[in-house]
Amino acid sequence: MSKLFLVRHGQSLWNLENRFTGWQDIDITEAGIEEAKKAGMALKNEKIDVAFTSALIRAQHTLTIILDVMGKPDIPVIMDKALNERSYGNLEGLNKAETALKYGDDQVRTWRRSFDIVPPGGESLKITYSRVIPYFEMHILPLLKKGENVLVVAHGNSLRSLIMYLENLSPEEILEREIATGIPLTYSYDGKFSRFENGN
Predict the structure, then answer these.
(1) Annotated binding residue at 107?
(2) The total number of structural domains that make up the chain
(3) How many helices (H) and strands (E) in the chain?
(4) Engineered SS bond to 62: which of 9, 57, 70, 170, CB 3.0-4.6 Å?
(5) Which pLDDT belongs to residue 199?
(6) Which parts of 72-162 are beta strand (E)?
(7) What CATH number does the domain containing 108 carry?
(8) Between these two residues, 165 and 175, which has the higher pLDDT value?
(9) Domain range holding 52?
(10) 160 carries a ligand binding annotation
(11) Residues recognised as catalytic
(12) 58-76 pLDDT, tens digit each
């Protein structure tokens, strides 16, 4: 049996400022650093063979801290933009509350929380899923099938896409799933995926 660990990056500066971040390369805050350290402590006794992360600094920085705290800084790390956050297009950098005042709460909620509606110039969760899952099936799943344990540090919506796939959730179910920053989620794999309810 192998294990898959998923971690959303620690709090970023634009998380703190309530901005749409998407593909903007924003680093984590001091609070995000502490979240990453706690994730490292939570995973300290786990065996990790390889780690994957996105092309964005907030996920990479979080992963580096996790591996340092685990005492495993030399684990192979693979970075790919397929694991990037969902692009919010023209909304990136805008304050979410101010955007809601301009376009209305319902419109902003639709952009953020629908499965297949695309924000202006950006990606829907459906589009994000269509790049995350083929990458997972091609590069990560074969390692799990070989019995290797894999850590993925990524973003709210790229991980939401992956969780939808792992747990066979409907679009409605996955849109209700909140993914906290810096808290590991653990799945076992023995031909099928099972989630450890205690996370880790």
Answers:
(1) no
(2) 1
(3) 9, 6
(4) 9
(5) 47
(6) 77-79, 150-154
(7) 3.40.50.1240
(8) 165
(9) 2-195
(10) no
(11) 9, 85
(12) 999 999 999 999 999 999 9
